[in-house]
Amino acid sequence: MNILFLCTFNVTRNASGGIARVTGNLSNLFTEKGHSCSLAYYNDVPGENDGTFRTVTKLRRNEEEQALNGLAQENDVMIVQMQMSKANLYLLPVLDSLRKKYGTRIIYCHHSVPFVEAAGFNGDFLRYLLFHSNKPFTKRINDILWCCVSILFPRYAVKRIARRSQAVTDHVDVTVLLSESFIPIFRKYVVCNDSQITAVGNCFTFSQRLSADEIKQKEKTVLVVSNMTEKAKRIWTVLKIWKSVSRNEKAQGWNLVLVGDGEDLDFYRKAAKRLKLNNCLFTGRQDPLPFYRKSSILLLTSAFEGFGMVMLEAQQMGCVPVSFESSSSVHDIIDDGQTGLVVPLFDRKAFSEKLLELMGDSDKLTSMANSCIDRDNRFSGTSIYSKWETILNPQKQK
Q1: Is the pLDDT of residue 363 over 60?
Q2: Same domain, yes or no: 341 and 387
Q3: How many independent structural domains does the chain possess?
Q4: Do residues 41 and 78 lie in contact, with contact meaning Cβ atoms separated by under 8 Å?
Q5: Can you give the CATH number for the domain in which 199 is found?
Q6: Residue 381 — pLDDT band, cuts 50, 70, 90?
């Protein structure tokens, strides 16, 4: 089967975001199973190319219809990995026409929580928009207004975003969510039948896991691997938590390392200086694998996550994740108290307490790290492909 991936960014090894890494993983997995994969994308990103692609095509905004028509004729399936934000909705009629002209099966992967644009807003983020964002105030107006609407009228916000999800669902063959737990809320607001909606988590990124012996060589490093953007990732919360825990004697000898780049990186660096944070390092964009290998704890303070790839990657390397309960899918990845810790959303005090508990108990930390690398294979390539095979060729399953 010929499969085309449609992405916003080129697929590069480890240096790009989670969606690109997932695309690379799937292309390698599908190729191993005898499929032929191609890639079409819009924007280049630095880093070594990843994935297994027969052809790679760069597209131009608002000029892609002819190129996609040609690619559709060569491929049986198109997997849309780019998020259908308001700016991308103009593509829906194009995708619909490809289905009708060439019989190309269009599969849309929703890489976040359903109706994410209505999620995760609170007073902290509103204060950030009002007083700390590095964007000109006039450019923040829409975000400020939408934040207020989402806080005051959450049901209205969800219904408004759901209209976009309905439009996408109506123009593709299948929408793939990241967790079975997302399906009920999705179907509450979007009309679709069973054949139009399914769920598949992401597979392991790395081919190997850290050994038990290597666990013993771990450093006292608390790690953050993230896009440096406040809207979803809430790195400012990390800095506040580190300010709190670094005063405790259990934190002596520990370092905070933040890996990643993004529009708010300068703000975070300045905030760390204002807070006079000790043992805090921003590395910028880096291959995260070496950091996973040597770090003991991973922090995830996102306001919303579809499927926290960094948690799965960290677990493979024996780096114990501590995460806000940013969505129900967190529990797909973390068995609370065994392969990580889950904290109620936005509860900084509880987060600090659980982090200090791990930092001060080396035996518990080592035990949990070993549980991470010994976990079951529900996210192995074999397990994930078995679900994708049903989506790629539903007739074969009947």
Answers
A1: yes
A2: no
A3: 2
A4: no
A5: 3.40.50.2000
A6: confident
Q: Give backbone dihedrals phi and psi of 147, rounded to 5 degrees, phi first.
A: -60, -45
Please compute the mean of the pLDDT values over residues 272-278 and round it to a whole number: 93
Domain carrying residue 338: 212-373
Q: Please give, one letter per residue, the 3-state secondary structure of 209-260.
A: CCCHHHHCCCCCEEEEECCCCHHHHCHHHHHHHHHHHCCCHHHCCCEEEEEC
- Is the confidence at residue 206, as pLDDT, over 60? yes
Half-sphere exposure at residue 104, Cβ-oriented, CA atoms within 13 angstroms: 28
Q: Are 355 and 390 members of one domain?
A: no
Backbone angles phi, psi at 225, to 5 degrees: -120, 115
The rounded distance, in Å, linking the Cα atoms of 362 and 366 is: 6
- Whether residues 239 and 182 share a domain: the answer is no
Report pLDDT for 119: 75
Report the predicted TM-score, pTM, of the whole model to 2 decimal places: 0.90
Q: Of all residues in the chain, what percent carry a pLDDT higher than 70?
A: 98
Tell me whether residue 279 is in a domain: yes
301 part of a folded domain = yes
Task: Answer whether 338's CB lies under 8 Å from 358's CB.
Answer: no
